[in-house]
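Input record (one chain):
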Amino acid sequence: MASPEAERIHRNSIVVEAHRDMFEMVRLKNMGERYPVINTMLPRLKKGGVTVTFFAICGDAVSHSKGTYRYLSAALENIDALRQEAEASNGKIKMILNADDIPSAPSLDTHYFLLSFEGGKPLEGRMEHLRNFYHLGLRAMQITWNLRNDLADGIKEEETRGGLTCFGVSVVKEMNRLGMLIDLAHISRAGYFHVLDVAEGPVCCSHSNCRKLNLHPRTIDDEQIKALARTGGVIGINAISTQVAEKNATLDKLIDHISYMADLVGAEHVGLGLDFVKNDGTLHPDDELFNSGENKLLPELENEEDLLNLTDRLLKRGFKEPEITKILGGNFLRVLKQVLKARGQ
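The corresponding structure, as predicted from the sequence alone:
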């Protein structure tokens, strides 16, 4: 049972979930649900007090392309599906397209989506596709998912020690020019630092944990954490159990990751990228590159409805209200205000 103080802090904070995949939306649409975000996802987000979601509308995974391997086409279809829901939502769904769209207070009646890609495959090696997706609302992008794409090597390609391609360098620079948030989740270590050499301003790592606490391909080391913090950016903590701990993952062990990062670089560089997978459904077999067969759900934090448990545990661990508010969403909002352009620019 969460304390009244935790409930008050949670209710008064803008909660930002910095990584949510489109898999549930697509699965439910395939089952005949016309408005899965409105009817199924929004009530859960409301119960969890989430105001802003970074929505990975497509990416490098085969499941992002609906199993078709047609990434550009799938991205267009997915963006259209979410935009249709926004139009039908009577104001309950809004898109963050510029700095002026960022909410200044928590909201239970309106949910804000920021569109992202989990890897650059939908660009198909063409810069004009990046610009066109920007015009359609894309405001953040991971450079890679797990494998190699036209931009860089993912974490599954660590042995190459490869960074950005020439196209990848150009994409990073163009994202800076357009006012898009660069996301370093899943990229190879060499690529991670190559992006930091090229990029200007704050970047994020939307969903990753501390390698010091859990040696996993998707966790990042102290040097990476410090380098990202120096940009003024934010790292989102991931709630998939196998990325929290090798075994016996708990909510307390997830709080360990938050505490470790806060001690290392300050609470102002820590956020939430929880990557809830409970309702995703079965993914394409080619995407299960790190599937150990274990339950990926974290006890006490299986989906958005459980977020109050996290706030309560942060308070019990000794975090002060200003720090909790920043971790729940304030830090990501700060970065978005720095990166996104003002309306009309």
